[in-house]
Amino acid sequence: MKPEDRTTPTGRVGQVKEVTSLTNPIIKDIRALTQKKARDESGTFMAEGLKLVIDALDLGWTIRTLVYAKAAKGKTMVDEVAAKTVARGGLVLEVSEKVIATVTRRDNPQMVVGIFDQRYRALKDVKPGKGETYVALDRVRDPGNLGTIIRTADAAGASGVILVGETTDPFSLETVRATMGSVFAMPVMKANAGDFLAWSRGSGAQLVATHLAGAVDYRTIDYRARPSVLLMGNEQAGLPEELARGADRLARIPQSGRADSLNLAIATGIMLFEARRHLLSLEPAS
Ligand code: SAM
């Protein structure tokens, strides 16, 4: 390892290190971020890809470490993110392709990986306003579902995703991959069921819970009058009584055919685009 200090335009000093050894302790720590325990202890997570890292920096996320493959050195955008990382006091690692492949556990790894501070927004600070839609997920288990929902919520123009109860980690590698970068754009909150219901009651938003036994066709609900919180049930168990009873409306998406239910992420997408139909347009926003 050859540390090379760089004094940045902001006067702060960041470091660029060259790493080729898989046993390097910093690389070991980064590899450990595939485990929830290591993410929880460090409060960080990993995001792969140059575009994601650029977006995250633009959105003001705190970068701890930037890792890039030696072959990417000299590419203007890679040099720019490296300079930004150093300017913000982060560490930059220039590594061999073998090292970046083990960090991401992929045969065809991305050339750039960023390690960022995790970020949750406090639910008590969320005050739904006119035209806003939130998604609340009861005990979501599947990282692919959660990532897809965060991405879909972003695409539909929702204002945040609330994780209710024990859920899968929004900052796991699998979830972050499935968000395709939306993890940096979509605020994520977490709460237990009681706190969520208490917040919802005082929020001024209508709580629309989706349920296979719901009596209300989801297309007949007025989503314009008040902001909405769309509450979705767990993949296996559906919504528990406690949450269903707390809802203003119990909505169902009519189905035909033999399937018992829709996949959670698909059902959330259908609800989101219906709830925001009046706000979405092909015309560019003025
Ligand atoms: N076995 C579960 C049950 O009995 O509810 C199925 C859960 S389903 C896979 C996951 C969640 O997606 C549901 O709790 C509900 O929020 C939503 N969902 C799926 N299909 C739906 C439908 N046709 N109408 C309303 N919500 C639906």
Question: Could you outline the blueprint of secondary structure elements for this entry?
Answer:
Layout: E1 4-7, E2 13-19, H1 25-31, H2 36-42, E3 44-48, H3 50-58, E4 63-69, H4 76-87, E5 91-95, H5 97-104, E6 112-117, E7 133-138, H6 143-156, E8 160-164, H7 173-179, E9 188-191, H8 193-203, E10 206-210, E11 216-217, E12 228-232, H9 241-245, E13 249-252, H10 264-275
Parallel strand pairs: 2-5, 4-5, 7-8, 7-12, 8-9, 10-12, 10-13, 11-13
Antiparallel strand pairs: 1-2, 3-6, 4-6
Helix pairs in contact: 1-5, 3-4, 6-7, 6-10
Bound molecules: S-adenosylmethionine (SAM).
Residues 210-212, 214, 232-233, 235, 238-239, 252-253, 255, 261-262, 264, 267 line the site of S-adenosylmethionine (SAM).
What does this structure look like?
This protein has 286 residues and is α/β, with parallel strands linked by helices. The protein folds into 2 domains: 116 residues, 2-Layer Sandwich (60s Ribosomal Protein L30, Chain: A); 158 residues, Alpha/beta knot (3-Layer(aba) Sandwich), CATH 3.40.1280.10. The strands form 2 sheets. A 7-stranded parallel beta sheet has the order 9-8-7-12-10-13-11, sandwiched between helices. Helix 6 links the parallel strand 7 and strand 8. The longest helix has 14 residues. Bound molecules: S-adenosylmethionine (SAM). The site of S-adenosylmethionine has 16 residues, from helix 10.
